[in-house]
Design goal:
The chain has about 600 residues and is an alpha+beta fold. It folds into four domains: about 1-75, Sandwich (Immunoglobulin-like), CATH 2.60.40.10; about 200-440, no CATH class; about 455-520, no CATH class; about 545-610, no CATH class. The chain is about 40% helix and about 5% strand. Strand 9 (about 350) and strand 10 (about 355) form a beta hairpin.
Length: about 600
């Protein structure tokens, strides 16, 4: 496989490092590299990173997926629609800037998926990518059904809780969870919503928006009450069955003017005409709506645009007094956001080359009792940002990356962007269009998207049927480096391959043991010897039989043939005396074998991908 790329403009890099499937293949000083270790019929993903003489690295390019033709069917060089191993991949520029892409061409709205009969692997894929893995009942219900019907169910079914699953408990054993009682119960309440969700997509989208419109409890500026209200606010733009007309535009309006957590975390409450604070205006362009550069590497906005948008967002004040003057009585207006005309920047404001007209200070004739020119400036500023040519592709790329392993094809991006704008920034058609794309079934035989830690954790709990209790999951979330309500910074979690390192891989395996403790010991149940507690002991079970029982007990997830062979070999290591014996030691050995098989299925390499 020969790769070629365009050298970056300006100073020539000292060398390039070529990466295949996340691992370095080696370095070269030339703008090309030949990989001689590929195998026929396999698909690989390549990326390139440039280094200067001081060994400083540029950004890793977006990856390019290339399939090596089978040796029995090598295509003629240059044949359209084939992957020619002698041909270069599309131009890849190994610089910190985003590589250029072709000029968008209008294409029709994406057509529904042609898959009228879904396999078990397809059903599993959709429930993992759009949720936290399927229950066996969901798998049984959807195998053999149409892809389009499952997508429609996901985007149209309102959020609800499966009350047949065990409710969570506080550390004291109470099943009534108060998310405002403290951070542990705040997190426990959301984990429970994710675990027992009938339709998992709303909670999965809330998790996405939490990584997008970021707030965090870790700097002390956001209270538990504001964080809880923020989560519920995001749910209104994630529960597309209950709110089918939800738009990104309205979400942006409300994040700017009606969310206490966002106001405090990004200093909107401190943004006044005399002391402007640029934090939120900067992030709404850099992180929430546009990104810093377009695909050609041009700046999407300037410092002057940040100044103008900051001025449009002045005057919004947050009531941060939790108690009244007596320091005892709760303040009914705690967390309320109001507009203060005295703190608003009245002159004209320029944002992205467009002018938001100066205000006169007069109320609108149709609303004589309300000062509505402050909100009007916010809406005008948000609209200008969303009408920027890069907004649609920026948001769609981020959403695509939540559900898909590979880069979005340009034609698909163009079609989804056109539909998104034509629908007034509605979210339901956009999510539907992404989930209907057949790319979601790419590489079914070898899942290739890393599960984010929270998705992984909730999936393990669902697979085991493990109820949750107290603070037992806070440690695993910290160790896996994704604790809900606690992103590390305003950019959120990096994601992708960054989820896996020598610490987090061990933490993921350890989390499985915590889930097993909740399922099979007194971690949840009052009596460690309760009938619902220990896994059953099956005397005389063969290695193949215990592997099948362990596999079924964790929801029959994808595992490779090589993994299955290794698990079977492990199961065969139990001595004959322990396999058939009746002593307490033999019973314990058999249970340990069963638990170990569960842990290796869920916590091993195969369990980390979806």
């Amino acid at each position: 496989m020969t790769l070629k790329w365009a050298a970056p403009k300006g100073a020539k890099p000292a060398y390039y490092v070529v990466v295949r499937d996340g691992k370095s293949l080696g370095r070269t000083t030339r703008a090309s590299f030949t990989d001689t270790t590929v195998k026929a019929g396999r698909t690989y993903r390549y990326a390139v990173r440039a280094y200067d003489k001081a060994k400083r690295a540029g950004a890793l390019t977006p990856s390019r997926r290339v399939t090596v033709p089978k040796q029995t069917d090598v295509p003629t060089p240059g044949t359209p629609g084939t992957s020619n191993p002698a041909a270069p991949i599309a131009a890849v520029t190994p610089t910190p800037e985003i590589p250029s892409v072709p000029t968008p061409v209008a294409t029709p709205t994406p057509v529904p998926s042609p898959y009228d009969t879904m396999t078990e692997a397809m059903v599993d894929r959709l429930f993992w990518r759009a949720g936290f893995g399927p229950t066996q009942a969901q798998r049984d219900a959807w195998v053999g059904k149409r892809h389009a019907d499952l997508v429609e169910w996901l985007v149209s079914t309102p959020a609800s809780i499966d009350t047949s699953m065990l409710a969570p408990k506080t550390a004291a054993g109470a099943t009534t969870i108060d998310p405002l009682a403290g951070q542990v119960e705040l997190e426990l309440e959301w984990i429970d919503r994710m675990q027992r969700a009938v339709n998992p997509l709303p909670e999965r989208l809330v998790l996405f928006w939490h990584r997008h419109w970021v707030i965090s409890l870790n700097d002390g500026s956001v209270s538990n009450k504001w964080a809880y209200a923020y989560r519920n606010h995001l749910l209104r733009y994630s529960d597309l069955g209950a709110h089918p007309g939800a738009t990104f535009r309205q979400l942006a309006y409300e994040m700017t003017t009606a969310n206490a957590a966002m106001s405090s975390y990004l200093n909107l409450n401190a943004n006044t005409k005399t002391r402007p604070n640029e934090n939120y205006a900067r992030e709404i362009m850099e992180l929430f709506c546009l990104g810093p550069k377009d695909p050609a590497g041009n700046d999407n906005y300037t410092q002057e645009d940040i100044v103008g948008l900051t001025q449009a967002f002045t005057g919004w004040r947050l009531n941060g007094a939790e108690f009244l003057a007596d320091k005892v009585t709760p303040n009914p207006d705690y967390g309320k956001i109001t507009f203060d005309p005295k703190q608003f920047h009245m002159p004209a404001k320029t944002v992205l080359g467009r002018v938001i007209a100066a205000e006169t200070g007069k109320t609108d004739a149709t609303n004589p009792d309300n000062v509505n020119w402050g909100p009007r400036a916010v809406n005008a500023g948000v609209d200008i940002v969303l009408e920027h040519p890069q907004h649609a592709q920026f948001l769609i790329r981020k959403l695509w990356g939540e559900f898909m392993a590979g880069p979005i094809p340009q034609a698909t991006l163009d079609a989804l962007s056109a539909e998104y704008r034509a629908n007034g920034y509605q979210l339901k058609p956009l999510i539907r269009g992404i989930l209907l794309n057949t790319e979601i079934f790419e590489s079914l035989e070898e899942p290739n998207l890393i599960k984010p830690p929270v998705v992984y954790m909730v999936g393990v709990l669902r697979a085991l049927g493990a109820p949750v209790k107290g603070n037992v999951l806070q440690g695993p979330m910290n160790s896996m480096q994704q604790r809900i309500y606690n992103p590390p910074n305003v950019a959120g979690w990096e994601g992708g391959m960054s989820w896996l390192n020598t610490n987090t891989v061990q933490a993921r395996f350890d989390m499985v043991k915590v889930a097993q403790s909740l399922r099979y010991s007194n971690g949840y149940y009052a009596d460690a010897n309760a009938a619902a507690s220990y896994a059953p002991d099956v005397r005389g079970e063969t290695a193949a039989e215990v592997l099948e029982r362990a596999y079924a007990s964790v929801g029959r997830p994808w595992i490779s043939g090589a993994t299955r062979a290794q698990l079977l070999a492990f199961a065969q290591t139990l001595t004959e005396a322990n396999r058939t014996g009746t002593s307490a030691a033999a019973i314990t050995a058999r249970r340990q074998r069963f638990y170990a098989l569960q842990a290796m299925i869920l916590g091993g390499p195969d369990g980390q991908v979806m």
